[in-house]
Backbone:
């Protein structure tokens, strides 16, 4: 077994266990964590059975009252200490992210920096005003409304940004007084679970406030169904989001859904074509295209399409494919055989239907090279489906109206980018796109701790995470009246 992260956290403590008021044996057995680049087993983690989830739900509910009643400064102190531990242990976090999720070290650094930003933002969130003094209906009386914690929050996450997605939900949920059941994806249970538990343990989070319950769909279903859980924050595919929402809906829980996308990068004829192609390459090839906010359609004005496509191919050819731990590698393997065969099917079916491969298009094992496709039409899977791989379908358009029509021709509505020499013009086009997020002369794939992240259509359910949206999501209103001054 390849040994990584020697020292902290002590493997003897967490290997084969779950975290639920301490590290303990699970009823769900263990599961190996496989490194996509090498096939090596990196660790064995404990898998939480539905019974383990039920026990964790009871413990989290029992801890909820005291944590909610803690002074905001006490909760903030935990978040500040967690930032310190994350900084001190950043080498360990980076190494696990690189080896478990198969991203290059810069992807690990990005997740760490973004997680630190989320913790810093949550520190501010804890002390924001959260109430209103209302006009009382009885003269001289009191009428107050303020936001209180929900209780136990269930967080169900995917594998592609395991640390960031854990912290972006945990930090506001904890800051605002909730306790949490965190279910990381079974492909990344260490960087998305074990290390997060150890981080908050070292930061002094009281026992029972956070539970880390690795497992697959059945563990996720148990979290969504648990009677102690008041809210589910789910990030993942639209199909799994629907399955989670069905179960959570039955229990009348709040559901925050961050789902998939088919995001367009639009290049108008007055754009800087080199800058647009660089943004396009980053948006589709970065982390092997495995981001919900990756560009899934490159819509380019016919006047620029040749220059844009040439530049995109140049960027694709310049990226070395290999083990992300090797110096100079820009593209690692995709996460799993399932993901590799999915990307292969989408490209092969599109090519059989008439698309042309300008570069890439053939995988070796899990290594799928950056690929550029043209002659893509609207019936092809490369146009209709979220690819979640390093594949850039390029489509020409003749007018702004046509670009907007193509960009909106999807049930998804997560992110978009518009490139133009005129920011007001790009802004006007952006205003016509049905997406939760849009960026001018930039990449599609952006996030910021102070911004409301999320999508429209089947990319979500109108919920957002980040910024002041997290204050709304992770708390609920309470109204109180009294006949006199309270
Ligand atoms: P997935 O939906 O298969 O899995 C995500 C999580 O849900 C995992 O923890 C998984 O174990 C769990 N899960 C799966 N089926 C479940 C079920 N029936 N009940 C309960 N839990 C279940 O997602 P994936 O394929 O691993 O991740 C890729 C998808 O996630 C893409 O569609 C991508 O666009 C989306 N995503 C969205 C965002 C966002 O913020 N909008 C971010 C990253 C990824």
Residues:
């Amino acid at each position: 077994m390849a040994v990584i992260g020697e020292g902290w956290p002590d493997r003897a403590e967490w290997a084969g266990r779950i975290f639920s008021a301490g590290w303990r044996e699970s009823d769900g057995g263990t599961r190996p964590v496989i490194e996509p680049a090498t096939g090596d087993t990196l660790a064995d983690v404990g898998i939480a059975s539905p019974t383990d989830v039920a026990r964790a739900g009871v413990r989290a509910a029992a801890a909820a009252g005291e944590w909610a009643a803690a002074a905001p400064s006490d909760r903030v102190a935990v978040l500040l200490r967690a930032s310190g531990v994350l900084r001190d242990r950043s080498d360990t976090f980076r190494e696990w992210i690189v080896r478990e999720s198969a991203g290059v070290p810069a992807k690990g650094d990005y997740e760490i920096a973004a997680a630190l930003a989320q913790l810093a933002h949550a520190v501010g969130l804890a002390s924001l005003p959260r109430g209103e003094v209302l006009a009382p209906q009885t003269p001289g009386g009191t009428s107050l409304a303020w936001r209180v914690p929900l209780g136990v929050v269930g967080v169900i996450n995917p594998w592609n940004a395991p640390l960031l997605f854990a912290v972006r939900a945990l930090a506001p949920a904890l800051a605002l007084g909730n306790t949490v059941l965190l279910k990381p994806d079974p492909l990344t249970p260490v960087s998305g679970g074990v290390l997060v538990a150890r981080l908050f343990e070292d930061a002094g989070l009281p026992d029972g406030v956070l539970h880390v319950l690795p497992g697959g769909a059945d563990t996720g279903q148990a979290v969504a169904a648990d009677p102690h859980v008041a809210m589910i924050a789910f990030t993942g595919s639209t199909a799994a989001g629907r399955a989670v929402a069905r179960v959570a809906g039955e229990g009348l829980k709040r559901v925050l859904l961050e789902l998939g996308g088919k995001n367009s990068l639009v290049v108008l004829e007055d754009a800087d074509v080199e800058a647009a192609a660089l943004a396009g390459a980053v948006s589709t090839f970065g982390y092997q295209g495995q981001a919900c906010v990756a560009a899934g359609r490159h819509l380019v004005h016919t006047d620029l399409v040749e220059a844009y496509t040439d530049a995109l191919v140049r960027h694709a050819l310049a990226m070395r494919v290999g083990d992300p731990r090797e110096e100079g590698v820009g593209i690692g393997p995709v996460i799993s055989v399932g993901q590799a065969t999915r990307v292969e099917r989408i490209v092969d079916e599109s090519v059989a239907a008439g698309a042309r491969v300008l570069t890439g298009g053939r995988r070796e094992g899990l290594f799928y090279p950056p690929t550029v496709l043209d002659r893509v039409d609207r019936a092809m899977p490369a146009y209709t489906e979220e690819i979640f791989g390093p594949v850039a379908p390029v489509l020409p358009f003749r007018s702004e109206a046509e670009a907007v029509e193509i960009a909106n021709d999807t049930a998804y509505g997560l992110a978009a980018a518009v490139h133009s020499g005129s920011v007001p013009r790009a802004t006007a086009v952006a205003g016509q796109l049905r997406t939760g997020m849009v960026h001018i002369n930039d990449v599609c794939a952006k996030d910021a701790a102070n911004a409301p992240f999320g999508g429209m259509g089947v990319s979500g359910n109108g919920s957002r995470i980040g910024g002041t949206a997290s204050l709304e999501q992770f708390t609920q209103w309470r109204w109180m009246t009294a006949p006199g001054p309270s």
User: Anything to note?
Assistant: DSSP finds 16 helices and 23 strands in the chain. The chain has two domains: 11-259+460-479, 263-449. Residues 156-160, 183, 185, 216-217, 220-221, 224, 235-237, 240, 243-244, 258-261, 292, 386, 388, 414 surround nicotinamide-adenine-dinucleotide (CB under 6 Å).
